[in-house]
Amino acid sequence: MFCTAAKFRRLSLAGFVLIIVAAYAFDALAQKPRIPPGGHLAVVADERLAALRSMPDPSARLLRRVGRGRFVSIRGSSRSRDGLIFHQVAINRRTSGWIQSDAVVASWRPGDDERLVRLLDGADEFERVARAKIFLDMFSRSALRPKVLLIYGDAAEEAATRLSREAERRFERRELPANGAPEFSYYLNYNGLDRYNRQGVTFVFDRTTKRFHYEGWAWREIVRRYPNGPEALEASKRLGSKILRNNLP
Question: Average pLDDT by consecutive 10-residue portion of the chain (249 residues)?
């Protein structure tokens, strides 16, 4: 039995809708962190040391590099001849190996919150944001949380200053079309913002000065949850400056 043209169009449209829905579902799944099975869960915080090796030795064959923020499942530990501690880890059902213990942090391991805070010193603003995000996700009950929230917010505002300069230079070189989309939308779609957005940072754009600024979630979180700590005073100052800046004519 042959389909009429109208019925064929309806079937084609239904198939197209199913493809779109499946694509969105796949994209949502792809964005979820991959949790390896079994063992004790940890996360890579220092990618400089995150070499997955065939044996618990810094000179052993490299299997792959493990990116910052990647979850690993710890199955065992061993000390190398150099005195380094290595964890036997799985990163998925098919891949496992040995990784230096200093590369990962875990909420169940005493002192890892302090160690991760030390990693924030001296890093550039994106490294501070990314590692602070790991801390905030992993150590919800740490006494160091307000300090890390302040670092996260300040690093995001520092990044906003640099991104403002970069975006302005880019759009100066590539003149925006006079009758195109609104100018501010080009700035808010600037691809330099993307990696910060993936770390939970939201920027707002001042159309008058053509400058980005951090939206301020971390500072508000300090004032809301830790109002009596020393970080609350600093966070209030940042929020006060933000309110004043937004009210300027």
Answer: 48 39 37 75 96 97 96 96 96 94 96 96 91 96 97 97 94 74 91 96 94 96 96 95 55
Is 235 contained in some domain? yes
End-to-end CA, the chain: 70
- Total of domains in the chain: 2
Q: Are residues 99 and 118 in the same domain?
A: no
User: pTM of the predicted model, to two decimals?
Assistant: 0.81
Task: State how far the Cα of 163 lies from the Cα of 201, in Å rounded to an integer.
Answer: 13
Instruction: Identify the burial level of 212 via C-beta atoms within 10 angstroms of its C-beta, where 0-12 means exposed, 13-18 middle and 19 or more buried.
Output: buried
Domain boundary pick from 80, 105, 130: 105
Alpha carbons 218 and 206: distance in angstroms, whole number: 20
Give the long-range contacts of residues 207-213, CB within 8 A, separation 24 or more. 207/183, 208/248, 210/164, 210/168, 211/160, 211/161, 211/164, 212/160, 212/161, 212/163, 212/164, 212/167, 212/187, 213/157, 213/160, 213/242, 213/245
Q: How far is CA 187 from CA 29, 109, 143, 158, in A?
A: 29, 42, 37, 17
Report d(CA 53, CA 96) in Å as an integer: 9
Is the residue at 149 inside a domain?
yes
Residue 2 lies in a domain: no
Tokens for 226? 């830790």
Distance from C-alpha of 231 to C-alpha of 219, rounded to nearest angstrom:
9
